[in-house]
Each structure stands twice: as C-alpha cells, then as structure tokens.
C-alpha cells in the first residue's frame, strides 16, 4: 500500500479537476462545461488534458459535436460524484450538529469548586439532549489546565482562571463572593462575626497547593493581626464534613455553602475582612471555536451553569 501511494503524482491531484470532470460528464461538451464553470474554453481544455494525464485515459473522445465518455470515465463517474458530494456536505458545508444521535465523548475540565457545583446539572442537561454521548469530567486547577487541554483532549474548562494564553477563548459566566461558614453551637459565634472573634476562632483552609496561608493573612498582617489556621485541606468536602460539631470556621464561596449534599444547617455570614470576589469563566481552544459541536456544547454549558447559579442564589435569598 505504501509503495503504491508513493507512485501517485499527488502534486497533480487537484479538486478542480474533479469538478471539471463532473461538468464534462454532464454536458459532454468542452464549451458547455466551460460555460457551466464560468471559465474559458482554453482553461477547460487544459483541465481535460491534465485529467487524461493524471488518470492515464482519454476519458472523452469527440464524435461530431459531442464528447463521448470512455469506459474508464463511466466507471469513475459515480465515485467522483460521491467525492464531490462528500466535500460539499462534510467539509465545506457540514450538517448541523445532531446532539440526539451524537455518540462521541464530551470532555469537560472542572476545578473542585466547579465540579461540586455543576457536575450533576451538566450531566442531566447534556445526557438529556445528547442521550447517546459519553461525558467525562476531568479535575483541573489553575496550574495544569492549559496542558490538560491537549493532554486530556478537553473540550471546555470551567473555573476562575485568569491571564489566559492567546490560544484560548473565554466566556464570562458569573461572579462569586465569600462567606464565613461555621457551626454556631460548636463555635459560640453569633452573626455578624466580629474581627476579634474571627481572629481567635480556629479556622479551616481550603488549600489546593497545601499552603496554610492565603492573601487574607497578608491583609491581616498589614493591620497587625494574625488568625489561627488549625487545618488545611485541598478537598472542600473534607473540610465541610469537619465543620459540623467542631470549633472551626471556614471562609468559602457563597455558592459552595449552598450545595445540596449536606443538611447540617451550618451558619453563614459576611466575613469581617475584605475578600475580593472572583469571576468564573468557561474556556476552550480558539482553534475549535467555529466547530458546530463546540458551539453546541458551549451553549449548553453556559445555559446550565446560569440556571444552576440562579437556583442556588434563589435558595440563599429564601433562607
């Protein structure tokens, strides 16, 4: 197979030649074929000469005012029409993405935060609209998400990443703020929590990189204060389990405090220190932006995240 491929004059293969062949088969006339393709008669004659050389066959022979197709041309006709049809429908004008019949895999990169908040809703929405697909959630963070696009073949990433490289596109989804979360009975704290009580209460810290400090500590140090961090964990669920019945306080995003997997009625309130809000974005590779499958997925992810955020915020206001 390899030796035969090397024998083919690929430089002489031109899609326009197949279009010319199709026009000649339809009109059986160099003049009419040239008019059909809006090119000069000499150009069409040149195309026919190239076709004859490429395919090693006369293809069309003049009899009176008509060009008669050879047996080789007749045999090639249906194949060339199929090729041109495939190029037109699958390459130049692909059909709209059909989610109902799609059997491929969607790969979504999620931070721990995004996975806890959105994985169930994303599964429900995507599997309902694309019932034959497979869905893969991949854990990412701000350190590895760029490489993960290629290493894990990710379609989109959801997280609070900033300073994006030029190969990525992004869409803003929403802005998140923070709350203090604690067991009021175990800590003895009342709302609002004062700065003095905040500092002396043992604190749990969600720390993806294992550090037992955050920008909050720098802010407190500038004011001459220091808080007591008793525990750090990269896993929010671990810390969330520990807050119940323990003298611990943790600063978390407001929506994380509202997820449905716990029913322990912890108290939340505004922190006594200024903590910047953060933006949640959806990211994808710029080179895939115009693919209909990607456009469909980005739309579904955006709509699903927006609905989930609105639902959690409505729950928060109701309480």
From TrEMBL:
SUPFAM superfamilies: Periplasmic binding protein-like II, Winged helix' DNA-binding domain
Gene Ontology molecular function, alphabetical: DNA binding; DNA-binding transcription factor activity
Domain HTH lysR-type intervals: 13-70
Keywords, sorted A to Z: DNA-binding, Transcription, Transcription regulation
InterPro entries: LysR-type_TF, LysR_HTH_N, LysR_subst-bd, WH-like_DNA-bd_sf, WH_DNA-bd_sf
Protein family according to the UniProt entry: Belongs to the LysR transcriptional regulatory family.
Protein name, as recorded: Hypothetical LysR-like regular protein
Gene: VV2648
């Amino acid at each position: 197979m390899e030796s035969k491929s090397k024998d083919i004059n690929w430089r002489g293969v031109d899609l326009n030649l197949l279009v010319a062949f199709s026009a000649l088969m339809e009109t059986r006339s160099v003049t009419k074929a040239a008019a059909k393709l809006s090119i000069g008669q000499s150009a069409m004659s040149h195309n026919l000469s190239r076709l004859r050389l490429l395919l090693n066959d006369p293809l069309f022979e003049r009899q009176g005012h008509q060009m008669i197709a050879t047996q080789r041309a007749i045999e090639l006709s249906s194949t060339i029409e199929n090729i041109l049809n495939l190029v037109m429908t699958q390459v130049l004008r692909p059909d709209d993405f059909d989610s109902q019949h799609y059997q491929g895999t969607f790969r979504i990169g999620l931070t721990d935060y995004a996975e806890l908040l959105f994985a169930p809703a994303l599964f429900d929405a995507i599997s309902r609209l694309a019932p034959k697909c497979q869905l893969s959630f991949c854990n990412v963070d701000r350190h590895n998400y760029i490489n993960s696009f290629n290493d894990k073949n990710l379609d989109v990433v959801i997280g609070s990443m900033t300073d994006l490289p030029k190969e990525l596109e992004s869409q803003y989804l929403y802005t998140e703020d923070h709350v203090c979360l604690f067991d009021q009975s175990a800590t003895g704290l009342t709302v609002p929590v004062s700065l003095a009580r905040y500092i002396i209460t043992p604190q749990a810290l969600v720390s993806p990189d294992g550090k037992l400090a955050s920008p909050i500590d720098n802010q407190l140090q500038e004011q001459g204060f220091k808080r007591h961090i008793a525990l750090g964990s990269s896993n929010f669920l671990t810390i969330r389990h520990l807050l119940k019945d323990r003298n611990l306080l943790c600063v978390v995003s407001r929506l994380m405090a509202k997820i449905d997997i716990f029913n322990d009625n912890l108290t939340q309130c505004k922190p006594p220190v200024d903590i910047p809000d953060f933006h949640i974005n959806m990211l994808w590779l710029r080179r895939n932006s115009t693919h209909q499958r990607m456009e469909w997925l980005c739309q579904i992810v955006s709509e699903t995240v927006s609905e989930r955020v609105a639902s959690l915020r409505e729950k928060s206001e109701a309480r």
